[in-house]
Amino acid sequence: MTIKIKYQNDNKSYKLNSFEEITNYDKVVNINCFLQQLILLPKLPNSLQQLSCGWNKLSVLPELPNSLQTLRCYNNQLSVLPELPNSLQILSCWDNQLSVLPKFPNSLKKLMCYNNQLSVLPELPNSLKELNCNGNQLIKKIKHHYFIKMIYL
User: Fold this and answer.
1) H-helix or E-strand containing 3?
2) Cα–Cα distances in angstroms (integers) from residue 132 to residues 15, 74, 113, 142, 151, in the given order
3) Residues 127, 130, 105, 146: is their CA dihedral positive or negative?
């Protein structure tokens, strides 16, 4: 297994063999653990800003820290997502088994939720600029009063 992490105030990326090898856990701002055949993630650090855990076998995610800005959890086996933090700006949760999504934070700018089992979406925040939700069974037209750069239904 290879996990890439970054710490606060450090532009260098560190490669580790396991989550247990992470030192200064509460100073981690970026975790990249995609393509690792993971079925579970540990408790996430409170300082985490970006989590990339796509292309695994995750069926559930741990509680998301309030500092999280980017969540890339695509191509897993997720049927539900935890509550989304108010700081979240990018959510890429495509190619899962999601039938419902949690309430979106007002900070959300990009939502990629295509190829799931969604029939409805929560209310879209005014901050949203990019949306791709094709490959679902959406039964309600999406009404959004603000300019969306890209929208795929």
Assistant:
1) strand 3-7
2) 32, 13, 6, 11, 6
3) positive
91-132 tens-digit pLDDT = 999 999 999 999 999 999 999 999 999 999 999 999 999 999
For 19-32, what is each residue's pLDDT tens digit? Answer: 999 999 999 999 99
Q: What is the pTM of this model?
A: 0.91
Q: Which has the minimum average pLDDT: 96-100, 134-138, 141-145, 146-150?
A: 146-150
Q: Are 101 and 83 in contact (CB under 8 A)?
A: no
Q: CA-CA distance, 128 to 101, in Å (whole number)?
A: 15
Would you say 66 and 47 are in contact if contact means Cβ atoms under 8 Å apart?
Answer: no
Q: Residue type at 115?
A: N
Q: Are residues 103 and 124 in contact, defined by beta-carbon separation less than 8 angstroms?
A: no
Neighbours of 102 (CB within 10 A): 14
Query: Are residues 45 and 64 in contact, defined by beta-carbon separation less than 8 angstroms?
Result: no
- The residue length of the chain stands at 153
